[in-house]
UniProtKB/TrEMBL annotation:
Keywords: DNA-binding, Transcription, Transcription regulation
Protein's organism: Catenulispora subtropica
Domain HTH tetR-type: 29-89
InterPro entries linked to this entry: Homeodomain-like_sf, HTH-type_TetR-like_transc_reg, HTH_TetR, Tet_transcr_reg_TetR-rel_C_sf, TetR_C
Protein name: TetR-like C-terminal domain-containing protein
Composition bias, Low complexity: 18-30
Chain spans, region Disordered: 1-30
DNA-binding region(s), residue ranges: 52-71
Pfam families on file: TetR_C_11, TetR_N
PANTHER family: HTH-TYPE TRANSCRIPTIONAL REGULATOR RUTR, TETR-FAMILY TRANSCRIPTIONAL REGULATOR
Annotated signal peptide: none
PROSITE patterns given in the database record: HTH_TETR_2
Length: 219
């Protein structure tokens, strides 16, 4: 994902906490970690349609009652998994130039999507989001979090004068990952390092040309 932030809609932002969104410690934290790892394994093996809470309890060696009480539905478990993925994801890389930062972002997206485990997991959660509103909301929060993590590299480029004032930082970051996800999910074209580098260079060139800049008045 655009890289891989606090998550909008998660605990602490004033929104109601849904199933699986409390961040506990101790035994409860270990139970959550085991269930989420089991959910990852199940999603990778068989996809969202086959995700079953009783099976998750068996895989994680925890009580079915605990799993049903904490998450309630497979979609709620996927939502909590996405929250955990956002919390555990890598911070952005700062290279000192916009092109360098965007290449780092594209490289992380490429690595994530081409890794056999994480690539299969992302396909599964994207499938879940396509058929369940709660899973979709969780996926949207995940991507909003990742974009928010990387957008400051564009803000820093604005401050250095690399791109015009008024450039929409989030749109630049989206422009890096969008062609990579297209290859990953739609076209089947090779998703290689060259494609990642090309996506980063294209987004940087468009940003410098003002393609993502809102209209503004010059002083």
């Amino acid at each position: 994902m655009s890289g891989e932030q606090s998550v909008p809609g998660g605990p602490g932002d004033g929104s109601p906490a849904g199933p699986g969104t409390v961040r506990p410690g101790g035994r409860t934290a270990r139970t959550r970690a085991a269930a989420l790892r089991a959910a990852e394994d199940a999603l990778i093996e068989a996809g969202f349609d086959a995700l079953d809470l009783a099976d998750i309890a068996r895989r994680a060696d925890i009580g079915k009652t605990t799993v049903y009480r904490r998450w309630g539905t497979p979609a709620a478990l996927v939502a909590d998994l996405l929250l955990d993925m956002a919390e555990q994801s890598l911070p952005r890389t700062e290279t000192g130039t916009l092109d360098g930062d965007l290449r780092a972002n594209a490289g992380l997206v490429h690595k994530t999507l081409t890794d056999p485990r994480s690539g299969a997991l992302f396909k599964a959660v994207i499938t879940a989001a396509a058929c369940d509103a709660d899973a979709a909301a969780a996926l949207h929060r995940f991507y909003a979090t990742r974009i928010a993590e990387w957008a400051p590299c564009v803000d820093q480029a604005i401050a250095r004068g690399e791109v015009p004032q008024g450039t929409d930082a989030s749109e630049v970051i989206r422009a890096v990952s969008a062609p990579l996800y297209y290859r990953f999910l739609v076209s089947g074209d090779p998703l290689d390092a060259a494609a990642a580098d090309r996506a980063a260079r294209a987004a940087g060139a468009a940003a410098r040309a003002g393609a993502y800049a809102a209209s503004y008045d010059h002083p």
